[in-house]
Design goal:
The complex is a heterodimer of chains A (482) and B (255). In chain A, the strands form three sheets. In chain A, strands 5, 6, 8, 10, 11, 13, 15, 16, 18, 20 and 22 form an eleven-stranded mixed sheet that branches. Chain A contains twelve helices and 23 strands. Helices cover 23% and strands 34% of the residues of chain A. Chain B has 255 residues and is α/β, with parallel strands linked by helices. The two termini of chain B are 31 Å apart. Classes of the chains: A alpha/beta (482), B alpha/beta (255). The A-B interface holds A 1-2, 428-431, 433-442, 444, 448-449, 451-456 and B 48-52, 71-73, 76-77, 80-82, 84, 87-88, 90-94, 97-98, 101-102, 105-106, 109, 141-142, 158, 162. The structure holds adenosine-5'-diphosphate and magnesium ion. Adenosine-5'-diphosphate binds next to helix 1 of chain B.
């Protein structure tokens, strides 16, 4: 391609935009993990007894487990005793009751990130629950939501205020012992969001959370639980960023969704954790378990993700299609550059009759990165007339990157129908030449071509985030032309 | 406007252009004819700056400026336009978006304000009518699933939108039926202007019935072996390339 080596080097030098550290006083645990740490954590959070017991049980399970090694990713073994399991911004009172009470330095951080925490800003109409390191710092639009009967609060608050709901649903989709990282999260999760949409309610706002890892050597273990009661609807979006640090940081989140009869949950993620530098130094290990249960008849869960950050991503937002006629969807764009590695995909487990699932995965690899799609579509004996459509496309930029697809299909019901399409293409020299011949910059050409490739997924995102996602791709692709 | 002196170019180490000399002035229409494999597309691509081809000797200037020093996109912004013989598809990128990005890149270069989506839509619709393309094509992916003729009309659409100084049309007539040929030639004739030059590459003379060139050049084996007025094209049609001592198959095989 056209751009000279020198230009490429300059472009590559452009740095991660969100890579600044916020200087605020923090209460941080000494690194290390044992039952005592968990007890302290639970105590700080003033949790009821059941929560502590649940955490300890998860911890004991975790001790018996091993790091998973099957994914197509390569990273040094993590020393879990070198991580701190709690870091909260220091505050004068107990918890900030409103945004006015939040440390202004913290708010400036959000401003730098372009996160619209204030109601007047461009995301008016979006309630933001912002998680900074481990503690949720502010939720807007609470009143409007309360009027509709919607509960949207930090999960730590839900544990205290709505213990029955939490006890009933927490771990119901991702059991504490589900996998290594889920067990760790269950033991030490610090905060995250809790959403409950009552029967028949259409949530009047897009709900949104931004996560950011700030403190050094801190793991972020957020936990999100969304319950959509019968006939309800909610659209939820999470955005993620982290500062630049030379050492790797661990992010092991768990997200559980529960959709009861006729309920719909739309969950969108724009993930832009720090990916490490151009030599592969630093970056977030993003080991996340996301799973939704379509418990009820005619329920629907839709995952849309745009993954551009993290050094290593290990993530498979999945659907358990238990209710008859339930629908699961997975729309994904995963972009890797430099030395990033992503192993991502989905699992669609068909249990009920007439269940349908759709998987559209777009993987983009540039630089020396590695991008794998891993998907499982499973039809259990009861999944009469179930069907799945999978489309899995890879786009390569340059010739030092890799794309892999691992689609697995298990069918124990003869009436199930599966369609699978897969393509691999390159941003071709001819396409680049055409764009440039029409006066378009090479960088802009690549981002236009990549955006075109992702179109089917972007159209699933809420409007304003589709624009954001497009821009994010552009930034993430800087330096990929060469 | 365009001056080509002793231009040599090769691809994958094989010399294709072996000393091309050509002068084109503003307002002129030049036709380059020649058998398959003679280097017509190579010449077009080299002028537009395709880096798959290496210029080994010679010089090319556009209005006195050294063209060979410029990147492809810089040449385009200076007014060089190439209508491709085989237009490539860009799936998922709408024609409209692509065209607007291109038009705005040119406008930015000229210091003019960018066109917003509504303004551009209006302009693009008008121009697509001019080349008899249903405006629905603006919403489709760039060349995605277009027929051969539609692709060619889309190229002319782009030329009309970008208003280049030098339009190079590489076999824009090939694969067109009579009606489409008429539409495309009308489009090219609409491009003719005092301050614009057109370089038409064609294998057949039939296009030249619609677009009457000022000069005709015959390219064979990487060299221009004969130049003349439009009567040269008619003579070629009558007597074939053999008349000039070129056998089509051999010419292709020799490369
Ligand atoms: N990218 C390429 N790689 C290798 N050979 C090429 C390439 N492009 C053109 N050629 C060769 O160069 C010669 C001239 O081709 P071309 O310029 O396309 O001729 P024309 O357009 O007159 O038919 C042919 O022998 C062709 O095979
Ligand atoms: Mg040709």
């Amino acid at each position: 391609m056209a751009t000279t080596d020198k230009e490429v080097k300059e472009l590559i030098k452009r740095e991660y935009e969100h890579g600044f550290v916020t200087e605020i006083e923090a209460d941080t645990f000494e690194p290390g993990l044992n039952e005592d740490v968990i007890r302290r954590l639970s105590k700080i959070k003033q949790e009821p007894e059941f929560m502590l017991e649940w955490r300890l049980k998860a911890y004991r399970r975790w001790l018996e487990m091993d790091d998973p090694t099957w994914a197509h990713v390569d990273y040094p073994r993590i020393d879990y005793n070198s991580i701190s399991y709690y870091s909260a911004p220091k505050k004068k009172e107990d918890m900030p009751q409103s945004l006015d009470e939040v440390d202004p330095e913290l708010l400036r951080t959000y401003e730098k990130l372009g996160i619209p925490l204030h109601e007047r800003e461009k995301l008016a109409g979006v309630a933001v629950d912002a998680v900074f390191d481990s503690v949720s710092i502010g939720t807007t639009f609470k009143e409007q939501l309360a009027e509709a009967g919607v509960i949207f609060c930090p999960i730590s608050e839900a544990v205290q205020k709505y213990p029955e709901l939490v006890e009933k649903y927490l771990g119901s989709v991702v059991p504490a012992g589900d996998n290594f990282f889920a067990a760790l999260n269950s033991a030490v999760f610090s905060d995250g969001s809790f959403v409950y949409i009552p029967k028949g309610v259409r949530c009047p706002l897009e709900l949104s959370t931004y996560f950011r890892i700030n403190a050094a050597n801190t793991g972020q273990f957020e936990r999100t639980l969304i319950v959509a009661d019968a006939g309800s609807y909610v659209s939820y979006l999470e955005g993620c960023t982290a500062p630049m640090r030379d050492e790797n940081q661990l992010h092991a989140a768990v997200v559980e969704l529960v959709a009861l009869d006729d309920a719909q949950i739309k969950y969108s993620t724009v993930q832009n954790w720090y990916p490490g530098d151009e030599h592969g130094k630093g970056g977030i290990y993003n080991f996340v378990t996301k799973r939704g249960a379509c418990q009820g008849r005619n329920s629907k869960i839709s995952w849309t993700q745009v993954e551009t950050g993290s050094a290593v991503t290990w993530k498979y937002p999945s659907c358990i299609l238990k209710g008859d006629n339930s629908v699961g969807e997975f729309y994904s764009v995963a972009l890797t550059h430099n030395y990033q590695q992503a192993d991502t995909g989905t699992k669609m487990i068909h249990l009920g009759k007439n269940t349908t699932s759709t998987i559209i995965s777009k993987g983009i690899s540039a630089g020396r990165s590695s991008n794998a799609y891993r998907g499982l579509v499973k039809f259990q004996p009861g999944a009469e007339n179930a069907r799945n459509f999978t489309q899995c496309d890879s786009l390569l930029i340059g010739d030092r990157c890799g794309a892999h697809t691992f689609p697995y299909i298990e069918s124990r019901n003869k009436s199930a129908i599966v369609e699978h399409e897969a393509t691999t293409s390159k941003v071709s020299d001819e396409q680049m030449f055409l764009c440039r011949q029409r006066g378009i910059d090479p960088e802009q050409a690549v981002s236009m071509i990549v955006n075109g490739f992702c179109k089917e997924v972007f159209k699933e995102l809420p409007m304003e985030f589709a624009v954001e996602a497009g821009k994010l791709l552009e930034v993430s692709l800087e330096g990929s032309v060469g | 406007m365009l001056s080509i002196k002793n231009l040599h170019a090769s691809v994958e180490g094989k010399e294709i252009l072996k000393g091309i000399n050509l002068e084109i002035k503003a307002g002129e229409v030049h036709a380059i004819m020649g058998p398959n494999g003679s280097g017509k597309s190579t010449l077009s691509q080299v002028l537009a700056g395709n880096e798959a081809f290496e210029v080994t000797e010679g010089e090319v200037t556009l209005n006195g400026e050294n063209l060979l020093e410029l990147e492809t996109e810089e040449r385009a912004r200076e007014g060089i336009f190439l209508a491709f013989q085989y237009p490539v598809e860009i799936p998922g990128v709408s024609n409209l978006q692509f065209l607007r990005t291109a038009v705005n890149a040119m406008r930015t270069h000229r210091g003019e304000p960018e066109m917003n989506a509504a303004e551009f839509m209006k302009l693009a619709k008008e121009v697509s009518k001019q080349v008899d393309l249903d405006p629905a094509f603006l919403k489709r992916g760039v060349n995605e699933g277009f027929s051969g003729g539609e692709k060619k009309r889309n190229e002319i659409l782009q030329a009309l939108l970008l208003q280049p100084k030098l339009a190079i049309l590489d076999e824009t007539d090939s694969g067109l039926d009579i009606d489409a040929l008429k539409v495309v030639s009308d489009g090219v004739n609409a491009l003719r202007a005092e301050d614009r030059a057109i370089l038409m590459v064609t294998h057949y003379q039939r296009l030249l019935n619609h677009i009457v060139p000022d000069y005709v050049h015959v390219l064979a084996g990487g060299r221009i072996i004969k130049s003349g007025g439009r009567e040269l094209a008619l003579e070629l049609e009558e007597r074939g390339y053999g008349w000039l001592g070129i056998k089509e198959d051999e010419a292709a095989a020799a490369n």
